[in-house]
User: Fold this.
Amino acid sequence: MPNNIAERGLTDREILQLCLELEKGRCRSISNTMLETAHQQLREIYEQCFENASSNHYQLFEIMSKNGWYKTELASTEQVGNVQELMQNNLHPDDRL
Assistant:
C-alpha cells in the first residue's frame, strides 16, 4: 500500500474512503428522487438502485472497519433505549396525549 508522497498515488484507505463517500452520495440522491416519484414502476426501480447502493456502501464500510480505518463505538443499552423512545414518540405523537 503506497503512501501519497512523491506522487505515488492514493492509498488503499483513501480510495476506499472516496468510494464510501460516493456511495453515500448515491444513496442520498436516489432516496430523494425515489421519495418524489409517483409512478410505481419507476419507484420500484429506484428502490432497487437504492438497495444496491446501500449494500455497496455497507460492504465498503465493513472493509474499512476490518482494517481499522473506520472506527465506531458500541452504543450503551441506555443510548439504544433513548433512541427507541425518541423514535417511538416521533412515529406516534398522538399516543402521548
Summary: The chain is about 70% helix and 0% strand. Residues 5-71 form one domain. The mean pLDDT is 89. Residues 40-66 form the longest helix (27 residues).
